[in-house]
Every structure is written in structure tokens, then in C-alpha cells.
Amino acid sequence: MRRLRLIRLVVAVAGLSLLATALVLRLPGAAVLTGNADVLYLPALFDDLHRGLDVLRGWHLTPGPYVFPDMLVYGLADLATGDFRQALPLAAALQLGLLLLLGGAVHRAAGGRSAAMAVAAFAVVLAGLFAFGCGLAGAYALNWLVYPFVVTFHFGAILIAAAVLLLVLRQIDSPGPWTLTGLAGLIPAGVLSDSFVLPYAAAPALALALLCAPAPRTRGPALAAAAVIGAAALVAFLLQGWINPLNGIYRDQLDLGIGYGLFRLGGVLWRADAAERTVNLGLIAFALLPVLRAFMVLRGLAAGEREIAPADRIAVFAAASSLATLLAVVLFGIFRDDSFLRYFQPWWLLTALWLSHLAADRLRVPAWPAGAALAVLLAAAAALWARPDQLAARIEPPRTLACFQGPAAGLAGYWWAKPLVLHSGRRVRIAQVARNGAPYHWIVNETWAGSAPSFAFILMDGLNARAVLARYGMPDRVERCAGIPLWRYDDPDRLRRPLVAATPVTLPD
Questions:
Q1: Chain-centre distance for alpha carbon 69
Q2: 336 by DSSP, 3-state: which?
Q3: Cα separation of 173 and 326, whole Å?
Q4: Is the pLDDT confidence value at 365 over 70?
Q5: Which of 141, 350, 490, 502 is the residue whose CA sits 20 to 30 A from 7?
């Protein structure tokens, strides 16, 4: 019977996740965010993997390579579909489904009765946040909310945070070697893939374990958890610079200072547009709910209380994750514009997880026939209206692709290189260049253009016309491509020779 309940839950979550992905992709502005050049990092990498390992020799990965769990999630979607347009929405559904299932597991680990009810409550809270944000501010709210439906962009770190919380809760109440082993493996794997695992997961897990240590019943398991978490996080942090030196170089280059970061953060949160400002303030207030509860827990501990209730452990973790993330963003001064709101995913996702736990045991669990019928209904609806091949139509090709009717090779900036290569099926070969026209080795495979490409154009969007002109000379013709200047060159050597001679740009331009 327990196995049947689990199968029913997984089927329901799969259908719900696909339907939610279909709805989000239809929101104005969502398709742009879920299929841009940043998001196409993993699709491009896996598309190269299909052509053999030798093709990978020219790859330049990101400072946070998103190996785990992001590559695993996208890899499963890619294996199931074989087409990146279908794999992207399927990976989004997988991500959301994993989060919902982890929410149910956390609920059970914290003493809750029904994982299915927690999953349902979690989904309702997330849907309410989308309705609030997009209903008020439209596409702007997606800067906060869209990341469960986007490959990479730190959502994998949220999945790791939920999994780490689950392991810490189990270690505190039912200690054993497997939970400690899980923490010892999960945190380094996450940190080496994405540095934001440190504030999202490691720091709050360490804080929760230490706060549970004073209670005699949980002292031993909590201290063991704290030791493993602290050691794993420290080792991973020290290994980052050795395994991926680009991470440290990028972090130094990105550090813009506390003053600049606070100035930009304040400018984005306090918007001139009243609706956008209301969304920002509303989500900040939402994030403060577990912070306030954690403050009450600390007051209780200071007053002599020893044990932290299971629900309060989730609140403490969510609050510590939100505050650690804010501290990391402020200290590194890395906040530049509203797209950087993606860093604050713990503010609403972990708060929603906590609220769903509180709500689940206050809701009536439906009888078996009703739950089974709901699972079948969700699965049937997803099969009819949210199959990956249907959702793929929302991942639109770049509008510039229409300018190239046959095989073509040329130069383009970061935001056009991967979309043109992938959406054309490599019919259009691109050498990615920086604003000054030099080779741009940033999240790209420098071999995409081939060994001796017949370069014939430069797509000028985002490039410095004066610098490009000085490097490559006057074009033979200038056309308009989807409103963008397209410089045509009749002699391929006029582009190839200066490109080969230039010093590549290796950091964000």
C-alpha cells in the first residue's frame, strides 16, 4: 500500500509539473528567459557530447559549471527527447517535480503525516506567489519567480538545499552513518558545481545543527552533523580554486564592492513602477516570515528552552539561508540589475517549503479513490496539453536566423552565438566575439566555426562598431537583419586572419 501511494504521488507530481511548465512558458516574457544564451549552456554542451568527446576539446565552461545536479537533470531530459527544444521544458518539469517531492520528504522528516498533502500545499503556495507577482507586475515578476523552470541559474543549489535540510532533520532525530555520508558527499558536489550552495545550503545547515546541539537528546547527532557539514564545506571551498581556477578569477573580477552592491540592490528593489515595487516589498515580507519565527526560536533558547520543534527547524534553515544569501550578495557587491534577483531564490522557495509543512497537517487528506483519480487526471491532462513536443514550440528560434537561408559562417556576440548554432542545427556556424571583435571564450566551444570557415558576416548587435571596424575593416555591404546591422564581407580572410591573430577575451565582457 505504501508503494502504491508513492507511485500515485510521483505520477501526480509529474503531471502537475508538466502542466505548470506549460502555463509558465505561456506567460509574457517567459520564453525569452527560458531559452536565452545563458540557458543554452547545457543544451550546447550536450549537443556536442552527441558528436563525440573529441568535440569537447574547445569548450570553455562557466566558473560555476553546474555539474550536479543540473547536468544530471538536463541529461535525463536530453536522453528522453534527443532534442534540446523538448529537453528544456522537460528539464524544467523535472526540476519542479524534484522540488515538490523533496518538500514532501522534508515534511515527513519533520514529523508530518502526509507527504502528498505537503506537496499539494507546496504547489498551492508557489502558484499563489506566481499569481501575486505576475498579476501585479507581469514579466518583471519573472526575475524573481521563473527559475524553477530554467536550466542552471542556481536552481540546482535550491534542490541541494532542500536535500541537505532533509538529511539534517533525519540526522537529528534518527542519526546514522548514511545521513552523514550523504551530507559529506552532497555539499562538496554542490559547492564545486555552484558556489551559491554555500549560502543556500551549507551555512544554514551548520547553523541549524549548532542550534540543536544544546538539547541533551539531540546533542550528539547535531554536533556530528555540524562537524561533517563544516568540514565538507571548507574542503569544497578550498578545492574550488584548484579544480576550477576560473572560479576565483571570475569572483575577483565580479567583486564590485559593498557600496556599489547596496546601491544597485536598493535601486532595483525600490522601483519607480508602483506594481514592481509592490511585488518586491511583498516578496521581502514573505521572506521575513521564517526570519521572524527564527527570532522567536532564538529568544526561546536564550530563555532556557533546549529543544527546537521540527517545524521551527525548517524555519531556522529557511531564515539562515535567506540571510546568508543576502550577506553573500552584499559582501561581494555582485548585484547589478534586476536579472540578479535570481540570487534570492531561498527568500521565497524555502519560505514556501516551510509554509507548506505548516499547512499540510492542518488540511484533510483525501481518501484513496479521490487521490488516485486526481493523479490520473493530472497525468492525462499533461499527456494531452503539456507533452515536451508541444512545449518545444514555446522555445522560439532567434529572429535573426531568417537572415541565413543556407549554410553560413560568421562572427556574433555572446547573446547570439549559441542560439544561432543550436536552432540552425549547425547550419549557421558562429565564432563568438567580444564587444571589440576579439574571440570571446566565455561559455562557448571555440571549435563551432570549424577549422577553416568561410566567414562572410558580422552580426553587430552588442559589438563596438569603431573597434570592429578597426580590426576587420569596412564591410562590403551593410544589411538589416531583424533590425540589427549585418556587415557582409566577400573575402573570408578579412575576418579569419584578424580573428586568429587577436588575443581572446576570457572573462565577462
A1: 10
A2: coil
A3: 30
A4: no
A5: 350
Q: Which helix (H) or strand (E) holds 445?
A: strand 444-445
Distance CA 161, CA 353 (A): 11
pTM of the model: 0.95
Distance CA 362, CA 365 (A): 9
Packing angle between helix 2-25 and helix 115-137, nearest 10 degrees? 10
CA distances, 305 to each of 114, 170, 214, 282, 298 (Å): 28, 21, 9, 32, 9
Q: State how far the Cα of 47 lies from the Cα of 304, in Å rounded to an integer.
A: 58
DSSP secondary-structure letter at 202?
I
- 74, 66 contact by CB (below 8 A): no
Other CB atoms within 10 A of residue 370 CB: 10
Please, are residues 18 and 67 in contact by the beta-carbon 8 Å criterion? Answer: no
Strand 484-488 to 477-481 pairing: antiparallel
φ, ψ of residue 453 to 5 degrees: the values are -70, 150
- Determine the 3-state secondary structure of 398 from DSSP: coil
Q: Give the chain's length.
A: 509
Distance (Å, whole) CA 314 – CA 317: 5
Q: What is the pLDDT of residues 319-348, one digit of tens each?
A: 999 999 999 988 877 787 888 999 999 999
Count each helix (H run) and each strand (E run) in the chain, helices first.
22, 7
pLDDT tens column, 167-222: 999 999 999 899 999 999 999 999 999 999 999 999 999 999 999 999 999 999 99
Q: Is the Cα dihedral 404, 406, 407, 408 positive or negative? A: negative
Helix (H) / strand (E) containing 486 = strand 484-488
- 3-state secondary structure (DSSP) of residue 387: coil
Ranges of beta strands (E only) in 19-108 are 59-60
CA distance 446 to 278: 44
**Beta carbons of 320 and 203 less than 8 angstroms apart:** yes
Question: Judging by beta carbons within 10 Å of its beta carbon (0-12, 13-18, 19+), is residue 504 exposed, middle or buried?
Answer: middle
- Helices of type H across 152-273: 155-173, 177-193, 197, 203-212, 219-243, 245-254, 258-269
